[in-house]
Amino acid sequence: MRPMNDVLIVLALALVAAAATAAVLARDPVRQSTVLALLGLALALLFAILQAPDVALSQLAVGSVLTPLMLLLSVRKVRRKGRADGRADDREQETGSAGEGERR
Amino acid sequence: MSRRIRTWVLLLGGLGVAVLLFAASLDLPEFGGDRHPYGARAVEAALARHTANVVAAVNFDQRAFDTLGEESILFCAALGTVVLLRQTRDEHRVRPEPARVDPPVRRYALVALPVTLLIGLYVVAHGQLSPGGGFQGGVVVATALHLLYIAVDYRALERIRPVGLYATADAAGEAAYLLLGAAGLVAGTAYLANFLPYGTFGTLASGGVVPLLNASVGVEVASGVVVLLASFLDQAVEIEDATEHTASGPARHPTLPPPSEEKPT
Amino acid sequence: MSVLPYLVAGWIFLIGCYGLATSRNLIHAVGCLAVCQASTYVLLLAVGYRDGGTAPVFSDLRPGARPVVDPVVQALTLTDVVVGATVTALLLALVVQVGKRHGTVNPDELSELRG
């Protein structure tokens, strides 16, 4: 029981560290918000294993839904504004973000 | 400062912090250790006050004053966001077109909405008994409402989400917390003290003021998050400024997929 | 094993700071700040963990039957998670305003505009 639990904790920690690294290295905010949602899930898993169901619940709701959603909405607003100023390169990214939104 | 120098400064600082963190982690209490003096006392106090979920007891009884601070941060952050993202004079609203939603998506979202809402309310109501409480349940309730955006469209969401009402509820939640604290003074004890009878252990009415404070936090978090998401959604979906409309308004529609596919959830 | 969780918390904090400092997009920077916040949750809960402990909820547990993990750090983390999200919202609102005023959210371009 005890070593089994230790293995689970180490695995969850590794997952969290990897997800955090990936979230920072994803330079496109749209992709980053997806990775942040994954990080939220990994954190919720770790907290559940660390016997903190209250925190896991709150992390699940906030980290994997609320924060990525607000990031995506800000990206959309800022890019729309950028496009209105005649930045043609953003149009391509905008459709990318729409596709991302669809998938989520 | 050039970018090269900046990177070096960052690297040096990061290395210093890493060394300090490593040294500190060697001196922290051992992971998984058996000595938790604060935890043991918190458990004792929570059981003495008939609150089954010790985390809720810590939040709303033993450290209720700290939670007041946290809640005020939440309130101020929501207020600041609303002020920053309000519609300014040079912007105007574009009514979003009614969107077509695939029937399976609509069915699923319409089934999921009441279930999620119910789960959220359950999590808020049973905060003092089982894992959950006003903070977590409030977020679940608020995000559940937004399933209507996925199921139908933005107009439908706006109909069940009069922002003014939720903003008032947000303030009412904060006020209820403050007044419940003051009620402790009236009852002859201290501010935010647990002055109500503790009730029977393990029932909904146990824990004295814990369920009441929990509920007021639930109301505040739920309406606060609704208001926050409303300001962001308004900015992303409805509000456009004058240049935006003339520059890209008419030409925009052919280049973009229909609104139903643009939803960011 | 005994310091690994603390080291992971430190790593998350450092990588978040790295992203924050090298970010080319303020929205991405706010996301990196959320990563930094996550490190504090990991650290706090790691301090409160106890081997063989269970969650500090006594609705179906006889008091004293099993050791429980530290509820105080859990309470701290719990409020921090939700409040942190609203602070993230405030920062994002600032970024949206910056985008509206200047037409860019790249910190380098922004400082050029000022100078």
Automatic annotation (TrEMBL), chain C:
Transmembrane stretches, start-end: 6-22, 29-49, 72-96
Bilayer topology annotation: Multi-pass membrane protein
Keyword annotations from UniProtKB, A to Z: Cell membrane, Membrane, Transmembrane, Transmembrane helix
PANTHER family (alphabetical): ANTIPORTER SUBUNIT MNHC2-RELATED (PTHR34583:SF2)
Places the protein is found: Cell membrane
Source domain of life: Bacteria
Gene this chain is encoded by: mrpC
Keyword Transmembrane: yes
Any one Pfam family match given in the protein's UniProt record, by short name: Oxidored_q2
Name by which UniProt lists this protein: Na(+)/H(+) antiporter subunit C
Keyword Lipoprotein attached: no
Species of provenance: Streptomyces chrestomyceticus JCM 4735
Major subcellular site: membrane
Family: Belongs to the CPA3 antiporters (TC 2.A.63) subunit C family.
A GO cellular-component term linked to this record: plasma membrane
